[in-house]
Write a structure and sequence with these properties.
The complex is a heterodimer.
Chain A lengths: L1 E11 L4 E10 L2 E6 L7 E5 L4 E4 L1 E6 L12 H10 L2 E6 L10 H14 L3 E4 L15 H7 L4 E2 L8 H13 L4 E3 L4 H4 L4 E2 L2 H6 L3 E2 L1 H18 L3 E3 L5 H12 L4 E5 L1 H5 L21 H13 L4 E2 L8 H4 L16 H10 L6 H8 L1 H7 L14 E11 L18 E11 L2 E5 L3
Parallel strand pairs in A: 1-4, 1-5, 6-7, 7-8, 9-10, 10-13, 11-12, 13-14, 14-15
Antiparallel strand pairs in A: 1-2, 2-3, 5-16, 16-17, 17-18
Helix pairs in contact in A: 2-3, 4-7, 7-8, 8-10, 13-14
Chain B lengths: L12 H14 L17 E6 L5 H12 L3 E6 L11 H10 L4 E6 L4 H6 L6 E6 L5 H14 L7 E5 L6 H12 L3 E5 L16 E4 L2 H5 L4 E4 L17 H5 L14 E3 L12 H4 L6 H20 L1
Parallel strand pairs in B: 1-2, 1-3, 3-4, 5-6, 5-8, 6-7, 8-9
The chains are: A alpha/beta, B alpha/beta.
């Protein structure tokens, strides 16, 4: 079965395309992009007034399977991804057991093959059990399908271990993704350390906890030559340091999340755990620096850090609630609302942030509509009006601060390997 | 959100004045032979204390009884809390018994605010973590007003572990609303600069002498070792630099009063001589606690 997407504005930064054209997908691959295409056996999708882009890649999600299936499964997370306009997602290794072995990597790959509606790429752990002590079987995990390594959420504190990890990762040509948090500086903290945390009597996580770790990692990246990527960057100095490293030619990249450019600590409803995540919502100056980093190119990717937690875990005293919010279904809308509509970035730059940006780090062989590329397409609208009802989410969890928010702009249809996996009801 | 009392921050001046005035009405009652009024007859109050407390819990209980309300006190140890029940489940269970108010103390900042969003019962915050302790600030204000004609223009020094003090926060909000000058003083690691943004009229200093100079009121805070997750200051020299001694009082106004929310640690945050000093009003604070809590209970459920 073929799909012919008619009359959309096709934006494919990888091939320098931005024009109204048709896109033909057949047998799971892109056949071509050109005006006035026709195909007798194809399902026609009218994309007039819509943006047609290479399938979006979310390089940072938590699918919770194996081990925490009450919060999310590979299937439910992939459906949320599809409804958010993502065709490929990379899942972090903090499952139970931790994805630190071929067994778990293969399990995720196999479960995804059977149950996922989008492409799922596992990220392996840096250390066994993500305990920060002994290196995991990095090379074997790569052979089994891992596309990067990270101890997301439990960063490697021991600089010597991190150095070794970078050395190995370099030899396997894998990127090292770090959740940058000095655990001693952040210990006990529940939100960004600032006027709001002092007012609410909540313990703070200083921006310095992130800055210190980014600084260390950049030094180690320089030492080892590894490809190094900062996950969910959130502070002004961290952005500045990454920019400095890039200007000096280091193979260093970073991503940020929609909530870090959409919200600050001051936006947090008092003691509402749907605003509790790591890194925490930062100060206004940090949010501005993150936004500027996206504009300047210092930040190359937007990733959701989709982190499902069931209601029972979020319905507690703030300090007892786990960190993290879901984000797959609101990422495109927030990017349009906060960055595109205010004129900070173009639609073409937005597409880069979700395609070529993450692709350059993860090297999935995706993120373009070039002929013969995988038939992954994200169709979205900068103007569609819709309201996010978290109770209708495809995720198994409901922990979003954006519930009830009305957006202008959002995904319209998601095509994975030549098949529709989600369409907005219209 | 049901009408309760979660903090001082969200109250306006008139609401605070009303409570303080009403508390004054209740003061004479404390020394009468029959101390009971009928105001809350038939009402039921649950005191739910997740943290150890002697004076606040007793004070709330007595306040309820003096207004003829029925009061039940529950402490975490020996209740379903120690059996692993979640906070929200415990409170839902208690709310189903239809009390007219729940007085609550909890070690987590915001715990009563979280519950107030999910429960129909009014909640009175008897201290939440390191956030607020509204009735303490009210009784402190009542006590100051027993010794001064107004709060406006007073210089109030609050000394100790400010960062972890819910007493300090509530007092800052209250005193600032009435135009007092507030000097917060403590070791640097317990005195983040953001404290100056809590309310208008707040200054910070790490020098106890500077804090006390010309003060009308000296409010000492307990050193809350149980809230310190690390050694934020060298405990061995705390008294030397932040303990209140008689000689410090020469720096304050001649009629300055010394306050402490209790329980006091003689020799840790203030010397024994200061605790027993004639211008120490620590026991007046305790006495006013009952009058103020009567006023609060009456306002919330009367």
């Amino acid at each position: 079965m073929a799909i012919l997407i008619k009359n959309g504005r096709v934006i494919d930064p990888a091939s320098n395309t931005d024009r109204v054209a048709d896109v033909l997908i057949s047998e799971g691959r892109v056949v071509g992009v050109s005006p006035n295409l026709s195909a007798s056996n194809a399902e026609v999708f009218d994309a007039t007034g819509l943006i047609v882009a290479p399938g979006f890649i979310d390089m940072h999600v938590h699918l919770r399977e194996p081990g925490f299936e009450h919060a999310e499964t590979i299937e439910s997370g992939s459906r949320a991804a599809a409804a958010g306009g993502f065709t490929s997602i990379c899942c972090m290794p903090n499952t139970k057991p931790v994805n630190d072995s071929v067994t778990v990597t293969s399990y995720i790959v196999e479960r995804a093959r059977r149950n996922a509606v989008v492409n799922v790429f596992p990220i392996g752990a840096i250390t066994k059990g993500s305990e920060g002590v002994e290196l995991a079987a990095i090379g074997s995990m790569k052979a089994a399908g891992a596309v990067a390594i990270s101890d997301d959420g439990r960063p490697v504190m021991n600089s010597r271990v991190m150095r070794r990890a970078m050395e190995f990762a370099k030899s396997y040509d894998l990127p090292v993704i770090d959740h940058c948090e000095d655990l001693n500086l952040s210990a006990g903290g529940d939100m960004h350390e600032g006027a709001k945390s002092v007012r609410l009597g909540l313990r703070g996580i200083p921006a310095a906890a992130e800055d210190v770790m980014v600084a260390r990692d950049l030094v180690l990246a320089q030492l080892t030559g590894a490809r190094y990527h900062v996950a969910h960057i959130s502070t002004r100095y961290a952005v500045a340091m990454v920019e400095y490293a890039r200007q000096h030619g280091l193979p260093v990249t970073c991503e940020t999340t929609p909530h870090h450019f959409a919200l600050t600590d001051d936006d947090m409803a008092p003691y509402d755990s749907n605003y509790k995540m790591k890194p925490p919502l930062r100060a206004g100056c940090d949010r501005e620096a993150v936004t500027e980093g996206i504009v300047s190119g210092a930040i190359g990717a937007i990733a959701t850090d989709h982190a499902p937690h069931p209601g029972s875990e979020k319905m507690q005293e703030f300090e007892s609630c786990p960190f993290g919010i879901i984000g797959l279904e609101t990422a495109i809308a927030l990017t349009i609302e906060k960055l595109v509509h205010p004129g900070k970035i173009t639609l073409s730059r937005m597409v880069e942030l979700f395609t070529t940006g993450p692709e350059s780090v993860m090297r999935l062989g995706r993120g373009t509509l070039a002929p013969d590329a995988p038939g992954d397409v994200t169709v979205f609208s900068p103007d569609v009006n819709w309201t996010y009802d978290v109770n209708q989410s495809f995720s198994r969890s409901r922990n979003s601060p954006f519930d009830g928010r009305t957006f202008r702009g959002g995904p319209v249809a998601t095509i994975v390997n030549g098949e529709f996996v989600w369409r907005r009801e219209r | 959100m049901p009408a309760g009392l979660l903090g001082i921050e969200e109250l306006d001046r008139a609401e605070i004045e009303a409570i303080l005035t009403r508390a004054k009405d209740f003061q004479p009652l404390q020394t009468q032979s029959v101390k009971k009024l009928d105001a809350l007859r038939g009402k039921m109050i649950v005191n739910l204390f997740y943290e150890a407390s002697t004076r606040t819990r007793t004070s709330f209980e007595i306040a309820a009884k003096r207004l003829s309300a029925d009061a039940v006190s529950i402490t975490a140890a020996g209740s379903s809390v120690s059996k692993g029940e979640s906070l929200v489940d415990t409170l839902n269970t208690l709310a189903a018994m239809r009390p007219d108010a729940i007085v609550m103390r909890h070690a987590a900042s915001g715990a009563p605010h979280f519950l107030a969003r999910h429960l129909p019962t009014p909640i009175i915050n008897a201290g939440d973590g390191t956030h607020e302790h509204p009735t303490q600030a009210l009784l402190d204000a009542r006590t100051i007003l027993d010794h001064r004609s107004a709060l406006e223009g007073l210089r109030v020094a609050i000394i100790g572990d400010i960062l972890h003090s819910r007493v300090a926060r509530s007092n800052v909000y209250l005193l600032s609303k009435f135009g007092a000058q507030i000097v917060l003083c403590g070791p640097a690691s317990l005195l983040p600069p953001e404290l100056a943004q809590l309310a208008p009229g707040v200054q910070l200093t790490t020098d106890i002498r500077e804090a006390i100079r010309d003060a009308d009121v000296i409010m000492m805070l307990r050193v809350q070792l149980e809230r310190q997750h690390e050694a934020a200051f060298p405990a061995s020299e705390y008294f030397r630099f932040y303990g209140l001694r008689l000689e410090h009082l020469d720096l304050a106004k001649p009629d300055a009063i010394v306050m402490h929310p209790g329980p006091i640690n003689r020799g840790r945050e203030l010397s024994s001589e200061v605790a027993d000093f004639q211008r120490s009003v620590i026991l007046n604070q305790v006495e006013n606690g009952i009058a103020v809590r009567m006023a609060v209970l009456e306002k919330v459920i009367g």
